User: What shape does this take?
Amino acid sequence: MAFGKFLIRRLLQGVFVIWGVVTITFALRALSPGDPVNLIAGQVPDQSTRDQIRQDLGLDQPMYVQYFDYLGNLLTGNLGYSYNQRRAVNDIIAQHFAATVELAVAATIVAVVIAIPLGVVSATRRDQPADYAATFGSLVGISTPNFWLGIMLILIVAMQVGVFPTSGRGIAFHEAMYNLFRYGYVLDLLSWLSYITLPAITLGTYFTALITRLTRSGMIDELGKPYVTATEAKGLPRTLVRYKHVLRNTLIPIITVLGLQLGTLMGGAVITEEVFNWPGLGQMFITSLRNGDWPVVQGIVLFIAVAFVVINILVDALYARLNPQVTDE
Amino acid sequence: MISDRIKSNLTNELRRSLLAKVGIVLFVSILLMGLFAPVLATHNPHEQGHSDEAGASYPPLGLTDEITIAQDGERVSHTVEGTSEHVLGTNNVGQDIYSRFLYGARTSLLVGLSGTLLATAIGVPVGLTAGYFGGRVDDGLMRIADIMLAFPSLVLALALMGAFGRGTVGIPDPIVAAGFADGMPETITFPGMVTVVVALVTWVWFARVARGEAMAIRNEEYVKAARSLGASHATILRKHVLPNSLTPIIVLATIQVAAIILLESSLSYLGFSGTTLSWGYEIQRGHDVMRNQWWVATVPGIGIVLSVIGVNLLGDWLRDALDPNIEGEGAGGAG
Amino acid sequence: MKGVINQSIDRRTLLKLTGAAGATSGLGALAGCLGDPDDDDGDGGDLDLDTLTITQGEFPDVEDPNDHITGPYFNVYDHVYEPLFDVTPGEEPQGRIVEDWEHGDDGTVELTIRSDVVFHQGQELTAEDIAFTLERQIDPDVPPASDQVAGLGSIEGAEALDDTTLELSYSGAAQLAEFEFGNYLRAVSQEWYENDAPTTDDGVISGEDAEAFNGTGPFQVTEYNPGQNRIVMEPFDDYWGEAPNVGELIFEGETSDSGRVSSLLADETNFVDNVQPSEVGNVENDDDVRIEEVTSFRNIFLPMKNEVEPFDSLEFRQAMNYAVDNEEIISDILNGFGAPMSQPTPPEVNGYNPDLDPYEHDLEQAEELVEEAGYTEDDPADITLTVPEGRYLNDAEVGERAADQIDQLPNVDCDFESVPFDVVSEANSAGVDHEDIPFFLIGWGVITGDADYGMFGFFHDDGGVQSFRDEELQTALEESQVEDDPEEREAMLQEVNEMAQEKAPWVFLHQQQSIYGLDADIEWDAREDESVFVWEMS
Assistant: This one.
């Protein structure tokens, strides 16, 4: 019962947050200096054509009317229309989000696969060389701007080794998988892998470092708790206690932190995509922002915000399920 | 406000931790470089080497570079050697990389420190008010904070820059004005809009921490006592709540300096900065020529990494010494 | 995104050109200017490749061939949707789909089109389709609201007389009309558009797969996904002519300059555009690839809006030209890949004045002139040069160097600011009294090969991007537009150029070099208009 109420409250908050995001981005467009008519009509001097375009876009309406029109369109699922690309923003997002999700998931996998063992080793061999190495590594990882890391990877790995392309996406993951299962092409999957490796490392490094740090300190806290000594005293094997119970208890708060860090992941994706010419939402965001194509900018920000809210509600729900007292707070 | 206990904690931790010492050394060195850039620089950072037959670009001292030039339809190749004139070489317009490195430190620290200050000035009052009063005020302010959190900080910062433009403020350089560094730029280009923008995207972290502290403190006996003695809310906030929340705020501020340095470099890498004397901007430049002149992008990147490591180590030191329990907070490295 | 500005200015200028009563075309005067048309630019060649990949810095983000107006987009489209004519700057248009054309005396032209042209999806091309296409482009009531309307400014309408005969009506000069319909008409099938084509609500062809393309060109699209910056084509079996012998033609987009060169060197692509000058050596050191370059019709210059101080002073503007050392910019920033500008018109273009030399670099002269303009060391002129980033070859670096050179003057303080291109573009069209950004860097291709095209827009009150207002110059431009005799007109334009050099409306920098990297075994000559056609490769 409490859980249902909790969920409803979180959903309502989520709707409010999304409304806020929509309103702020709308305000930014309203404040931005460029005139969309110039974008669409270029330098067409003919005033009547320009007025016509202005009218078609509803830009001749007072700002509040434009705002409510925009909200109304959003409620019907219509994100608007790109000034530059002559295409619905919905379509643009649909075309690009798979690339971004692919990159974000790959980066998360890289991070989790490296970081958790590293954090565990670091915590269980405290103040030994392995711990120092992991601590130092994660310090550097957390302090390196990912665009620079990407450039260095291109410079050192891609240009010297030659296995990894310096940029681009090559083939989409689902296409590669389709070709693998339908025709038995392994090469496509390898090609996909070669394209995504460096961007995934670039985007994943910060999170690898962050999760390593969180795992380490979480583990150290947990290992100091009475139940660990108690279960060990009961004769359960040490490794089992460590890896099963301690790690599980450590990971729950980490998941919450990662939910909140999803924004950082998306921000990182923006710049990683720019460095590697990865055709995802981030690159589209930057291009559109440079061109003053605000409907696309607004649409992408909104899309990211919705993803953020939904994932965080899921994380909270999961957390609440695991820790019932949260709902009573 | 800074009790003896805190002082002794700090010194003990510093004595114990090698990393804390490293952090202080790194941070202070970068700070000095930034402060005294006009004195330490060997060239005006804007000054462009003018052409000799091989163009204007030099590799760092000890390296050589092959440059191909079109001359009357023919190709002429030159081998250029690094000179002691430009220890770290020059970028693709012939500016001295070492000198630009120093000035880049200045921009990073200026934005990092003043952006953090501004974010604190916005976030702390909001957070304290919300936490202290609780109820509707708290709900309202925290919903706004929720909205801010739903924006990735880099994405919001970019959108803000896109809407507001890239205004800068020119401040006279006191060192040059005092006559200690002839030939250096007379004004410091302070990327004001970037500073405002990074503060706008990071204040919410301060608000959250301040709120948590205020909530804990408002139920303390001495606060209740002060209230019953007729002290106004403003006085209580200023005299009791704020001083007692300082420790976590200072720790968070330290971490945020690092986050903001990364954010600033990302913005200038993407061309949204407003000043060319920025490490991020220089990396963007180097990106275009990296196959031949790899040092152009490499050197400023090392600057960013070292200063962020320095600041992060300072933060770790403060956190370990003061134990404010704010694990996991912070905007993180957007860069 | 190179190209957009030029294109939009081009059509703007054309519009005005066509609006000017009795304007005789600049184009007519051009024939022969560049020598005889190539004989071998017909179809086929002896290209023989399984796969040809072309990687451009800019990739189309729309599927409708009748909508946008960006140069690099047409490099892709023209292989699918062919133009009615082959147009090369400075040459007479050559019939392509059109077999024959004849002008009437009443502003009409009768086009006879080939009867054996079919669309990729099976429809036959009729005169009706071309009339329909034209309507899409120029009729505001027929979607889309096309940018190309401006490139067809003098064309008034079209009517199909029968399946293979089309009558076009136009205002203005016949030669100009020819240039317009020759360049901009890329036929779509009316039947397809009305029944099968994927379109948006407002009538733009827009789809997410190969079905969104249906032209009559030598290549048909087989794979397309707008999110991927990649389009795959193969030769069209029923093409009326001979399609180039390429198994698969792939166009790809890659915005990073060094990324394109990397792809070329790693053999992931066969052809890249806009190679950085500093990368030329890397390409040439590799035996498998080579560089192909040509000095383009694209000028790079710094307009100075002369209704804003201090640019209202002739002496000041001239001083800027003396202060900037364009030779040094070319050698230092562009590694020698560029040619200094002496006047608004590039060489090889009709109206270019061969007797003019570029302003010499002379700081003393510049300082004196600035002084005459009323600025001293104690009270220096304070100006800012605004430069776009990533639009033209090393644009930010070129601008920074120019600003630095001007800043050497003791009586001028010149700052430098780099901004996204759209900021500069807005400033460019914001009028001659625009105070915010009166001094900036911009590029412009005089792709028609006529000087008028390079000056009218910037120097005339009716020009879309006016940055300079001067009675004498305006009058001279107007007079040259109504001159019927080509030789006389050329002389007049040469005089206009001399006048423009003297009045110094811009700081003249350089003509940009188009540098391509391609496989060593592909034979191909770069074109001044920056077009890339596979059928010209062998």
Remarks:
- The domain at 90-328 of chain A is CATH 1.10.3720.10 (MetI-like fold).
